[in-house]
Amino acid sequence: MASTSTTASHSGTTGPVTRSPVVEWLSVVAVMAGIFVIVTTEILPIGLLTSIGSSFEVSDGMAGLMMTMPGFLAAVSAPVVTVATARVDRRVMLCAFTALLALANGLAAVAPGYGLVLVSRVMVGITIGGFWSIGAGLADRLVPAEKVGRAVSVIFSAVPLGSVLGVPAGTFIGELAGWRTAFVAMGVLTVGVLGLLVLVLPPLPPTATTRLSVLGGLFRRVNVRFALLLTFLVVLAHFGAYTYVTPFLEEVTHASAGLITVLLLVYGAAGILGNFLGSSLVARRPRAGFGAAAALLAGATLLLPVLGGSTAGALGLLVVWGAAYGAVPACSQTWFVKAAPEAPEAASVLFTASFQATISLGALVGGSILDRTSPSVVMALGGVTAALVVVVVLAHVARGKF
């Protein structure tokens, strides 16, 4: 194993600040709310893509840049921004990134041209990379050690919550009052989250200085490279398929627009449950947690082309898929942190960068395959990719350190 990959900061102390239990959990909820508004803002254009494109007379493909840009920018900004601000209080940085997100939503709402909308999405990407890299690994600084597992579950519940509420809420507001109003609403909500962060987060001086050399050192560790491989495969499998689940439900299940909304809401609700169950399992048995999530994801997507022709079959498999993927972010983050326990922020940087880059790559790969084949083929290939995760985990059992 490589030598220690962080240098202690003279201003930092480890462990949570002693505060009342109520304030401790309010701070956890504040970080969760920050990730929630980030996730919701990131996926908000999915339901508004056509109306935004029509407003600026751009094609759906060009409008799709609103979805692909943030992921790639987040992958770049995660290491760059985190390293550049390594000596700044993490509370200050979380608040700064939230303010940037509010500004991005406001800019999108008033943009006179599509170019400024894309500028706002650049700002969203920077926010994702910076906030996630810092916030995802803060649980052990906000609550006592015995509560960390539960705190991780709460923080990462923001992902399925954002997925459940983001697209339907954005689409509803957009249809009711126009797509610009949807971004105004997100901006107002983000300002509210900023106020909560300011009120309840304690000072969080950096406990270690994250440098590019630190990140490079982590790559030399077998368990870190393994965490990167697992994250790449499972996120590629999920987003390569899930991005195009609506065409599948339309063409194979023959579901109406209203039924598709219900199915995706059920999927999201299952994801919330999967997040809490997966977080609990992975804290005790990392290999079992990640392997189980990947196996369920693989089974659901492989069976969709076979059983997804009926509403009942699609519903049952989407519940399994949602529960499986709901556990993935917490499983991946936990694996990274366990691979580099003395450098949690650096581990979070790698987690964020790999996760966000693969989201964009998965959507691009899935779209390319869809154009040449069919939604059923996309689902099947997603299942095969997820099955590879199970194979890799089993192959690593004898060599893994945790």
List keywords for this structure.
79% helix; 18 helices; 2 strands; 402 residues; single chain; globular
Task: Describe what this molecule looks like in 3D.
The protein is an all-alpha fold and 402 residues long. Helices cover 79% and strands 1% of the residues. The protein is globular, with a radius of gyration of 20 Å. Mean pLDDT is 81; it is low at 1-14.
What topology does this entry show?
Layout: E1 7-8, H1 21-43, H2 49-56, H3 60-63, H4 65-84, H5 90-110, H6 114-135, H7 139-142, H8 148-156, H9 158-177, H10 179-200, E2 208-209, H11 212-219, H12 222-242, H13 245-251, H14 257-284, H15 286-307, H16 311-339, H17 344-372, H18 375-396
Antiparallel strand pairs: 1-2
